[in-house]
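In the present case, backbone shapes were mapped to integers, as reproduced here:
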Amino acid sequence: MAIVFAKEQKPIEMRAVYQNTLFEILKDDPQVVVMDADLVGASGMAKVFKEFPEQCINMGISEANMIGAAAGMSLVGKVPIIHTFAPFATRRVYDQLYLSGAYQKANLRIYGSDPGFTAGHNGGTHTSVEDLALMRVMPTATVLAPADATQFAWLLKETSKKYGIFYIRASRKGLRDIYDPSSTFEIGKGVVLSEGSDVVIFAIGEMIAEALSAKEELEKVGMSVAVVDMFTVKPIDVDLVKKMIIGKKVVVTAENHSKIGGLGSAVAEIMAEEGSGVKLRRVAINDRFGEVGLPDYLQKTYGLTADDIIKAVKEAL
């Protein structure tokens, strides 16, 4: 792992990262097969499908069939990379992922796009607040939530070289640049973005930027705040969590996911087994369904802003 932080902001859409990275992967490995469920245009993949017609399949609106077909192909040596919206990549196809995928030891990389508030105007039917919880309890699955374009591209390349069930959840839109493109990571290991002695914020995905903004504001009132990118939700970096909570007054988790079963639950399990005695506050979506709205509106409605993190810290002290 070699981390270099971004020195300037030049964010690009995650779907553009997906397209550009798959160009490289498909060119290097003829065994890779890209599959989509009628979202080729929406995922920015039209050029890839045109350039690599023998390695790309549009399965139509038949996500369960896509998972089953991908699992079968993987068992004869193909390396499937699958995309659809997060609820359709997990909730709708869970039985196929569980049995055709994990149970029979298939080799799948699943990109579930636009989770939580990033679903925007697609509304409640297309909103996934439970995908991390579902994938965390699937035996052998690795669950990933990249913080920015650099980490997303690295995860796509890295998982294409590994065997197993890999779920990557990320928006199709642009995120704040956290890392320089030269950075490399290690699956299963968190990244300490800043050290601090009073508070530690464990965050993932879209909430990394909010955690860093909250840190800046809290430090203006004299608080020392650590921020950790826990991009691997499973297997979570247990040793790093144990290390970072030592001596803290408050531990906060921040995720664009239900408060039940995601990053907050994973950290809570570690803290409970450790008997840490430190206060924990989870900034996440409460027990509710999604709704229609612009992402900014939904983010505020679900309580997933830097202000919500700041409020959680102050109320705990």
User: Anything to note?
Assistant: The two ends are 35 Å apart (CA to CA). The mean pLDDT is 97.
